[in-house]
Structures are given as C-alpha cells and as structure tokens.
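Handout, section B. The chain below has 444 residues.
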Amino acid sequence: MPGLTVRLRAALCASGLTVTLAFAMSVAQGNEATINETTSVGRVELGAPDVVADATVACLYPMTGRSASYGRDSIVAIRMALEELATDPAAPRLRVIVDDSRSKASFSVRMAEDFIEQDNANILCGMVSSGVGMAVSRLARQRKTILVGTDHASSRATLEEGHRYYFRVSSDTWHSHAAGARYLQELQREGGWHKIAFLGPDYEYGRVAWRDLQEAMELYGVSYEVTGSYWPKLYEPDYSLYIQSLLESPPDVLVVALWGGDFTAFIDQARTTRLFDLMRVANFDTGGDYESLVALGEMPPEGLILSARHHVNWPQTPLNRQFVSRFHELTGRYPNYSAQGAWAGILTIAKAIALAGDVTDTEAMVEALEGLEIQLPKDPEGYVSYIDATTHQIIQAQAIGTPVPSQEYPPARVILGNWKVYDAESLKPSPSLIERRRGRSGGG
C-alpha cells in the first residue's frame, strides 16, 4: 500500500491536483471511512499550488457528524471540476482549500476569517447548513469578499439578506417549495387533500422552508387547513413525540423539511407506526437525494412525494449521465445532491474569473457573476442555468417524483419516477415578492 499511495499522490500532482494523504488513500481504495461520523480528514487542498494559482478558493463543508457525507461528496465533485478545467489551457488555475465547518456557525465564521487573513483566499464557497451559510455571508458582506454558496438553501440568504458579494448555485427553499406548491395544487385538483402539516428542523432552513411553502400556496390559490407545525432540533435522534402528535391529529399531507440522516431517521421511525396509512409524506427539497433513496430499501412507504437539488436519473441528458458516471468511476458510489452544487460552484467561479480577467478585481467579478450562464447536470435539454442578476440566486427547473423500483443505481432499490417538471422561469420570485421580502429587513 505505501507504494500505491506514493504513485497515486504523484499522479494527482502531475495532473494539477494536490490532496491530503488520507484523502488520496480513500480515493485509491474506494474507502469511505476517511470521512465519516467519527473521523475527520481535516484540511484538504486541491488544484494548483499557491505559487502558480490564479486564485485561491476556500470552501467550508461538514466532514464530521450526521452530515459528513455532504462534505465527502463535495470534495469528490471539486476534484471532478478541476479535472475538467485542466483540459482547457485558457481556464484559470485554481487552488481550492476545503476544511470542516463542523456545521457550527461561529466556528465557520472564524475559519472563513482565517481563510481570508492567513490563506489570502480570494473567494469563499460551499456550506451545507443554512445557519452556517448565513453567518459566513454576513462576514463576506463585511469583508467585501465574494461568497459562492453551493448547498445551503434558505431563501433569506438571497432575498432579505442578499448583498452584492453573495451568490448561490444550488436551488433554494423558495424555488423547491414553489414547485412543491404547484405539485400540491395539482394534487388537490385531483381531489387528493385539504389538511396539511409541516415538520422541519428548528433553525433557519426549516423555518424559512415553511414560510416559503405557505407563501407559494397562497400565490397559487391553494386552500388548506393547517393541522400542526412541528419543530425538532437539527440532528434530533428521536421523533416519537412528533409522530404521536401527527397520529392524533392526522393531516392529509405532511410536508417534511428534514434532510440527510434526519430525514432517514424520521422515515425509519414513522414506518413502525400507521403514519403512512393516514397521510402522504412529501419532501420537496432534499428527500429525493440518492442516499435517502438507498435508505428506503426495496419496499418504501406508500405515498411518498420527493425531490432533491440534483437527481442521478433526471434529466436524462449526456451531461448528467457523464457527471454521475464519472463520480461513480472515482468512488464506486453514486453522488448525493451536494456533489452537483460543489461542481457547479468551482466551474462558476472559474468562468467568472475568465470573464473578469483578474480575481482581485472584485467589482469586475461581481459583474461577471451577475447573469452568468452555466450548463449544469441538473439542466433539462434546451435549458441553461443562470444566476439572476437581481437576487444572485441560480435559476433552475425543478422535478418532483415518487419512488419506483429500479436496479440501475445499486445499492438503491428504488429511484424517483413519475416525474412532474416545473420550468425555471415560472418558479422565480416576482419583483413584488422580492421587494416585499427585502423591505422587511432593509436588505439589498
């Protein structure tokens, strides 16, 4: 193994990629144990050495705890993006630093400050938790440093607290829940439901997701009765009290905004009760993630309605197939949705640098990012994602489906199908909504 490790490190360096020894060994062995609930890889450096890099990009991702897989897959996707850039002689050479956010806001702010002061980072990126993303965004605004968010989703980040230096390249709570409201509207027209309940994590992301869903349902003229809203803490281990309350006052539809291991834990605990006999369960932003589908097993509960920020089997475009296939070649597994966000972030940053000409010209970088178009694996045929110049939020189509049997992406035994697709432009927040949201906080 020492000889293999040395050869792998040499090969990575020769290709313009540098990486910690632990991560190099993980990729060589197809070993996921390097980034798991008990072991941190610590700081990872990828791409060009500092002395020749055109820009330093510093990313924060969780590498420990229940959300560690998001950091693990994001690192792989960053490698893939750097591979692609290496094939273009005109592309900027990026040095990319990744470190463990620990999903803690105050810790992440200190880390971001160190990235700027000690590593001379030109651009910040990443983050999974919306609480972390919002905190680092406030620092970016203060320091006039560009931040490209790749996975956290609170719509407040681009609306109430949107600012000149913050951009996001993954779907937010507004777009996913606007699509969800459209789905629920169509389901209601089919005579499917009237009473609704909501269960989401008691922090920024969950609270904003519920607000966005309610506002979108009002926009689309959906009439409903709320039977309850439930707020477990992030990483809650026991959902039994919430499940019991739902059984005592069952809605027709339960919308869940838990993500990652939290959503899996809730589903597993609810399966031991009659919950799925009494209500349909929807998760419009994260529930259709590949890892969640694996956890459903061969016989998922009846009535699930799911989506995610990226799907391994939708859209069936050459770019998405290539992205998923390359990820599988590198790791022996299929990506969770955070991978596409990290891939998009690095390529977006590179394209903006090429357009601006100099990463240190912050105003030119902002102008390059505003309205920037970039083809992403999530884009259906004939559509190209772009960053809205007003909100700095990427605009993308949304697809919602239900689990169907499939052996195509093992170890998952089901995959999403029966798609309903909502075009990107129809989901954009209206100018009046943007004005109202920003007027509440004085943001802009």
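Note. The longest helix spans residues 337-356. Compare this with the example in section A.
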